[in-house]
Amino acid sequence: MSGRLLPCLMLFIAALSSSGFTVMAKRMEINSRLTKPLYIAVSSGGSFDSEDGVDKRKRKLIPSLTGWYSNLLESHEVATKSVSTGILTVVGDICAQVLGEYLKHGKLATSLDKIRMLAFFFDGTFCTGPLLHYVYKLYEHVYPINGGGDGKSNPDSLKRAFVHVLFDNFVMIGAYISLMMLSTALVEGRYKSIPHEFKFDLIPNIKASYKASALGLMWLQLISFYWLPTNLRVLAVNFIDIIWVVVMSFVTHLHRH
After folding, report:
1. Does the predicted TM-score (pTM) go above 0.85?
2. d(CA 1, CA 181)
3. Which of 17, 99, 104, 112 could form a disulfide with 216 if both were Cys (CB 3.0 to 4.6 A apart)?
4. CA–CA separation, 134 vs 116, rounded Å?
5. What mean pLDDT do residues 26-32 have?
6. Which residues, 6+ apart, have CB-to-CB distance to 122 below 8 Å?
7. Between the CA atoms of 166, 204, 16 and 27, what dihedral angle is there, to the nearest 10 degrees?
8. How far is Cα 242 from Cα 216, in angstroms, rounded to an integer?
9. Cα(230)–Cα(144) distance, rounded to whole angstroms?
10. Which sign, positive or negative, has the C-alpha torsion 138, 142, 143, 149?
11. pLDDT per residue over 164-186, tens digit each?
12. Quick check: 173 and 209 in contact, CB under 8 A?
C-alpha cells in the first residue's frame, strides 16, 4: 500500500513545487516600490493607506483573517503559532487516514481514529509548534535573512534563506520526526513499541521526508522564508507541511499496532 501512496504524494508535491518556482521567479523581478506595501499589509494586518503605494480600495484583497492573526501574534505569539500548528497537523493526519483507507479498501473512510488525531494535535501544539518558533528565531539570530520580505532586492537574502531551509529540512528534520514519533506514540498508548519504532522506522521516515522535501516542499518553504517576516514563517510552513504530515503520519502508522 505504501508503494502506491508515496509515489502519488511525490508527484503532487512536484506539481506544487513547479508553481512555486514560478512565484520565485516573479519575486526576483518585482521592485521594492511594489513589494514594500505588500509586506506592510501582511505584517500590520492590512492597516496601510495610499501613501504606501496601494489604493485604499484594494485593501479588500488583504483578508481580514490576516489582521486577526497578526493581532494574536502580537499578544500571544508562541501560543498562537503552537495552536495553529496543532490544528494544521490534525488536518494532515485526517488526509493521511482518508487516503490510507481509500488505498486499502477502495473507499473513503467512514470514521476517523480520534485518538490518533488527538496525538497529532498534541504534537503540533506542545512539541513541534513551540520548537519551530524558537528554532526559526535562532536561525534568524545566527544567520539573518537580510532584506527577506521587506521589499529590498538583496541577492544575499536568497542565499541565506536557502541555508535556513537546507538546515531545517536535512539536519533538524531528525529532531522533528523523532519528537513526532515519540509524542504520538505516547498519546496513542503505544509506548511499548517506541524502541522498536526508533530502531526500524526512524531512518525510513527520515528518508521519506528527504524525498518529499527535495521534490518540492523545501522549495515552497524557501519562498516563504525569503518572502515573509520571521513571525509569519511558522504559519506558512504549517500549511506547506500538511503534505509532509500526510507522508509522515502514513509511514509512521504502517507498522504501529
Report:
1. no
2. 21
3. 17
4. 26
5. 44
6. 86, 183, 184, 187
7. 0
8. 13
9. 10
10. positive
11. 999 999 999 999 999 999 999 99
12. yes
Name the amino acid, one letter, at 123: D
Torsion angles phi and psi, residue 54, rounded to 5: -125, 125
DSSP the chain: -HHHHHHHHHHHHHHHHHHHHHHHHHHHH--HHHHHHHHHHHHHTT---GGGTS-GGGGGGS-HHHHHHHHHHHHSHHHHHHHHHHHHHHHHHHHHHHHHHHHHHSS--SS--HHHHHHHHHHIIIIIHHHHHHHHHHHHHHS--TTTTTT---HHHHHHHHHHHHHHHHTTHHHHHHHHHHHHHHHTT-GGGHHHHHHHTHHHHHHHHHHHIIIIIHHHHHHHHHHS-HHHHHHHHHHHHHHHHHHHHHHHTSS--
Distance from the Cα of residue 101 to its chain's centroid: 24
Q: Any idea which residue has 504534537 for its cell?
A: 123
Q: Are 74 and 84 in contact (CB under 8 A)?
A: no
Residue 75 CA to residue 64 CA, distance in Å, equals: 17
Rounded to whole angstroms, the Cα distance separating 115 from 40 reads 41
Distance CA 87, CA 72 (A): 16
Question: Residues of the chain with pLDDT > 70: what percent?
Answer: 72
- Rounded distance between C-alpha atoms, residue 59 and residue 122, angstroms: 36
